[in-house]
Design goal:
- This protein has one helix and no strands.
- By secondary structure, it is an all-alpha fold.
- The termini are far apart.
- The longest helix is centred in the middle third of the chain and has 69 residues, at 2-70.
Length: 71
């Protein structure tokens, strides 16, 4: 009878460990999704900065060209 009780206890322990592993996997997955969304935000911010930089350079080139025509 003790062997049956020990086996049941072992199964319960294994089941608890499996549940804990599943919870950890969900946690890792949620963190991966969060990191992915942050990377998307960083990418969009980079594109915004890049577009501003391009516009800024274009403005400088226009100013330089206007200056050449004034000479």
């Amino acid at each position: 009878m003790a062997a049956v009780k020990n086996t049941k206890t072992n199964y319960n322990n294994v089941f608890s460990l499996i549940q804990e592993i599943n919870n950890n996997i969900k946690y890792v997955d949620e963190n991966a999704n969060y990191v992915s969304s942050q990377n998307k935000n960083i990418y969009h911010e980079f594109k915004n900065i890049s577009a501003f930089y391009d516009e800024f350079n274009t403005s400088i080139e226009l100013e330089e060209n206007i200056g050449k025509f004034r000479l």
